[in-house]
Amino acid sequence: MTVTIDLLNNDPRRAAAARHPEKAHRPDNEIARKPDWIRVKAPTSRGYLETRALVKANKLVTVCEEAGCPNIGECWEKKHATFMIMGDTCTRACAFCNVATGKPAPLDAAEPESVARAVRDMGLTHSVITSVDRDDLDDGGARHIAETIRAIREASPATTIEVLTPDFLRKDGALEIVVAARPDVFNHNLETVPSNYLTVRPGARYFHSIRLLQRVKELDPSMFTKSGIMVGLGEERNEVLQLMDDLRSADVDFLTIGQYLQPTKKHHPVIAFVTPDEFEAYKTIAYSKGFLLVAASPLTRSSHHAGDDFAKLRAARAAAA
Fold this sequence. Notes:
Layout: H1 12-19, H2 46-57, H3 63-66, H4 72-77, E1 82-85, E2 89-90, E3 100-101, H5 111-122, E4 126-131, H6 142-155, E5 160-164, H7 174-180, E6 185-187, H8 197-200, H9 206-219, E7 224-231, H10 237-249, E8 254-259, H11 276-288, E9 293-296, H12 306-320
């Protein structure tokens, strides 16, 4: 008799390889110990558990879970969640991202209604919808995003809507479809400075993303635009400042800056942990360049405090008028 003992059954390397087969051949990068200023409590509150139950009951995917967001406990306790539509598998293979990579399943035609129902049942005053990249679709998923916006409007008319979209690279007419559905906030993240794109975001093009954000304002000048980056990926300070100028040239209203945290040993390593004082300095400089709103801290993420930030955005625009 032969007995086989599977010593890798609970090995995190197996889970990482399953989610990120394109990274399996890469050498391991040690995960650096986080500094004292990056600490979050394990999510255990009643509100968190209720939000998780509602998400599961509606068979929804959230970027909070898929991307391993450190703020999930805080946000879900307050019944805030960022819904990730068009599946849980992305066609891109960014070096920083923990969302699974591979061949996605067909779109779920019932998903827009499911998301809208969850938004209504959670009583959200502000909803955030993001998605995986769907390079396999002729419109990059633009029609599905627009249908989700319209479904939320019908189910919960008072809820404001923020979308965090892919770049729709080589998808002519896709951006126009999303903007025509009139989300309140259009967010598209640059993620990092242009010198990092080849290694960090190889499937994207920096100036295409800048042009995408600029085009939103051309199509609808009243729509709020937003973009975010991570720091700690080896960028230089002057590169971050130039990126701010590039975003302002596209008339972007809101900038978020957060610390990159390495999901697994197969992902890009953290090159530096940026201090809270450095984040404050970035915030001050960004405001001086004309952004209506800036969120910059180690745990800042695109959708963190999104509802409160939307109220601040509107107030800032009114004050500037």
